[in-house]
């Protein structure tokens, strides 16, 4: 056994996308470099034309087109810039080749019932060869902000290099987050990929969920008997690969209840299966998927949420339940490190992929 981050200027984007769609012939979109500006990222014809949302920062106070516009991506993204740009260029490359990148997860009828569902999108990164296993990636978020570009794009480029297919889930956050909307989006994403695996050229079984921070908590819930895959008749994940996951919201539970689920002064904390009430380690059973997880000793965000209630508690629960796992604790790996570039966690995704493959070999899909 192993042990061891919104909104864009909607009018401008819609006009650009409309112009692209109206063009009689698709021009080849230019690729990005770490020295490209943020403006070139947000309005790159390939990025916009593919429907990939790169406006990750802000919800209640949305990022505006003039903010950060002249920053280089190197400054904007940070240490993961090289791999994140490689991931963004996969979007551009797929657009240039006519490959559909963006899939809406809900029908027009469902969106009419709840307009926030229009925010839920799946971004597709085909493998080099069809028939590959796939990974579904969920970034972290800070209430109204997500980290799709710096966390997920950097990881996608590495997964692509390793021969896997990948999907990034744009799940609902912030003011659109109520009644487990984020978790509903995760379930719908796995349902969509499973139902369309042949068309997408991926294996329906033995997939991995890759979750960062709060995205890791959603992935963790998906492994539980209480709310997870078996409740929806979906294949069990081959592995959960979790980076600095928040597995217990601790004192954040009432905050989320009052902010997003209609709590009023004097109300009791929302009981039941709201995602933020789920303490993942307490839900682990023998049916839980094999799990690779890691965090850094200098992760100040996790320190404020009691590490003993997070990955350390998950390790104990996995051990007691006899679930295959690997926990790695790095000395220097701050919260939000993504694929670990510039920290002690650099290369963790390659180790996690090896764990994934070993887990699939040890527990082949029925």
Q: How many strands?
A: 8
Mean pLDDT: 87
Q: Helix share of residues?
A: 25-40%
What structural class should be given to the helix and strand makeup?
Answer: alpha/beta
Mind telling me the CATH class?
A: Alpha Beta
- Approximate strand percentage: 5-15%
User: What oligomeric assembly is this protein in?
Assistant: single chain
Q: What would you say this structure looks like, in words?
A:
- The protein is an alpha/beta fold and 366 residues long.
- The protein has a single domain, classed as Alpha/Beta hydrolase fold, catalytic domain (Rossmann fold).
- Helices cover 36% and strands 11% of the residues.
- The chain contains 14 helices and 8 strands.
- The protein has helices at 10-22, 38-42, 45-50, 73-77, 81-96, 108-113, 148-161, 181-195, 197-200, 214-222, 252-260, 300-303, 311-321, 348-362; strands at residues 102-104, 121-125, 134-138, 165-170, 208-212, 239-243, 291-296, 325-330.
- An 8-stranded mixed β-sheet has the order 1-2-4-3-5-6-7-8, sandwiched between helices.
- Helix 5 (81-96) crosses helix 7.
- The longest helix has 16 residues, at 81-96.
- The protein is globular and about 55 Å long.
- Residues 1-24 have low confidence and may be disordered.
């Amino acid at each position: 056994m192993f042990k061891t981050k919104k909104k864009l200027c909607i009018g401008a984007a819609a006009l650009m996308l409309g112009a692209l769609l109206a063009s009689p012939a698709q021009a080849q979109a230019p690729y990005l470099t770490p020295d490209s500006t943020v403006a070139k990222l947000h309005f790159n014809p390939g990025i916009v034309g593919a429907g990939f949302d790169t406006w990750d920062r802000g919800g209640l106070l949305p990022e505006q087109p003039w903010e950060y516009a002249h920053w280089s991506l190197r400054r904007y993204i940070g240490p993961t810039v090289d791999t994140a740009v490689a991931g963004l260029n996969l979007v551009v490359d797929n657009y240039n080749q006519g490959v559909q990148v963006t899939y809406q997860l809900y029908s027009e009828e469902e969106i009419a019932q709840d307009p926030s569902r229009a925010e839920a999108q799946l971004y597709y990164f085909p493998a080099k060869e069809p028939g590959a296993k796939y990974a579904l990636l969920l970034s972290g978020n800070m209430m109204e902000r997500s980290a799709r570009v710096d966390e997920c794009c950097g990881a996608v480029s590495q997964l692509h290099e390793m021969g896997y297919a990948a999907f990034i889930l744009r799940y609902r956050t912030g003011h659109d987050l109520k009644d487990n909307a984020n978790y509903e989006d995760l379930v719908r994403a796995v349902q969509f990929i499973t139902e369309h695996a042949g068309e997408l050229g991926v294996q329906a079984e033995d997939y991995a969920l890759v979750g960062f921070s709060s995205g890791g908590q959603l992935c963790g819930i998906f492994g539980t008997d209480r709310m997870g895959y078996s409740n929806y008749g979906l294949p069990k994940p081959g592995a959960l690969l979790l980076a600095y996951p928040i597995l217990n919201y601790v004192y954040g539970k009432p905050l989320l209840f009052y902010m997003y689920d209609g709590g009023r002064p004097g109300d009791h904390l929302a009981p039941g299966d709201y995602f933020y009430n789920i303490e993942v380690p307490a839900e682990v059973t023998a049916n839980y998927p094999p799990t690779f997880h890691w965090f850094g000793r200098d992760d100040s965000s996790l320190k404020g949420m009691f590490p003993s209630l997070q990955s350390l508690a998950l390790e104990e629960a996995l051990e007691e339940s006899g679930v295959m796992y690997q926990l790695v604790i790095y000395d220097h790996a701050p919260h939000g490190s993504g694929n670990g570039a510039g920290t002690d966690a650099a290369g963790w995704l390659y180790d996690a992929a090896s764990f994934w493959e070993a887990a699939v070999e040890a527990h082949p899909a029925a």
